[in-house]
Design a protein that fits this description.
This protein is mainly α. 72% of the residues lie in helices and 4% in strands. It has one domain: ABC transporter involved in vitamin B12 uptake, BtuC (Orthogonal Bundle), CATH 1.10.3470. It contains 12 helices and 4 strands; from the N terminus they run H-H-H-H-E-H-E-E-H-H-H-H-E-H-H-H. The strands form 2 sheets. It has a two-stranded antiparallel sheet. It has a two-stranded antiparallel sheet with strand order 2-3.
Length: 297
């Protein structure tokens, strides 16, 4: 492998890992608060990409207006999903909430096929991001540089909210002890809603960046990235935001670099994440950053 090809693969690996990290955060935040796997998170991701697509291609809005609008609408949809599919089952057995999450995932996916159609559409080309940059003789699309930068900014804002604000303190309190937080006067329902909103914002940012990097959109878009990012959250230690970020980068880098060094394995690209999951569960079941805890019944 030439140096230029290696650097090209490194850029692709870092950008893909950044995208996985953004999506994995939504899984780990919801699990940290509710001990619930939001199986519909991949469909939230898909909706974010389509909202951005329609805002630019149909309503002809400039990207700097269309993208924030798509992120806001996606966040609202994520909050509505929590209110409709999860809140009524707050005190129900966990199996009921899990079935509701799976049902919501398939419902959104199939409604998406009806509304958006089953034919793939191309995400609008944004010239400022699609331009090719030459660095030391290596040609890399500008979006490959934009994705890690936007991811780092989004993560910095998220960590500030979690660690430096009152609502972040409340989120950490709820994640530690649901009932104790309620007794301390924390509005648990509001915190849960806020968590779903933040997770949906991260998914929407990732979806827009994904659309610019991989422009083919289809209503089943969120299925495989959603599974891989759930795996990333488990690998990093589900419930730990830092772990989700680390897991996302590990899977993204692993996926690109193994194919780069072993092209014959390209047909098994999607399997690498599942193999990694099995290895992590065998070696460290709580994940890389996870801590052993007693599961509450």
């Amino acid at each position: 492998m030439t140096l230029s090809a290696f650097m090209q693969n490194v850029a692709n690996a870092v950008s893909l890992g950044s995208l996985y990290a953004l999506l994995a955060i939504g899984y780990t935040m919801v699990y940290g608060i509710l001990r619930l796997i939001n199986f519909a998170h991949g469909e939230i991701f898909m909706l974010g990409a389509y909202f951005a697509f329609y805002a630019v291609s149909v309503f002809l809005l400039p990207w700097y207006i269309a993208f924030p609008m798509a992120i806001l609408i996606t966040a609202i949809f994520g909050v509505l999903l929590e209110r409709v599919a999860y809140k009524p089952l707050r005190n129900a057995p966990r199996i009921a909430i899990m079935m509701s999450a799976i049902g919501a995932s398939y419902l959104i996916q199939n409604v998406g096929i009806l509304v958006f159609g089953g034919v793939p559409v191309s995400f609008p080309n944004i010239p400022i991001f699609s331009q090719v940059c030459k660095v030391g003789g290596i040609s890399i699309a500008r979006v490959s540089f934009v994705i890690p930068v936007v991811t780092l900014i989004a993560l910095a804002v998220l960590f500030y909210i979690i660690n430096k604000t009152k609502v972040g303190t409340a989120m950490r309190a709820v994640s530690k002890d649901y009932e104790a937080a309620r007794l301390m006067g924390i509005d648990v329902n509001t915190i849960i809603t806020f968590t779903f909103g933040i997770g949906s914002v991260m998914a929407a940012i990732g979806a827009i960046l994904w659309g610019m990097k991989y422009p083919s959109l289809i209503p089943t878009l969120g299925l495989m990235p959603g599974l891989k990012c759930f795996i990333a959250a488990v690998v990093g230690g589900i419930g730990d935001v830092r772990g989700a970020v680390i897991g996302g980068f590990i899977i993204g880098i692993l996926e690109i670099m193994i194919v780069a060094f072993f092209p014959d394995l390209s047909g098994y690209r999607d399997a690498f994440a599942f193999v990694l999951l099995i290895v992590i569960l065998l070696v460290k079941p709580t994940g890389l950053m996870g801590k052993s805890a007693i599961e509450k019944v």
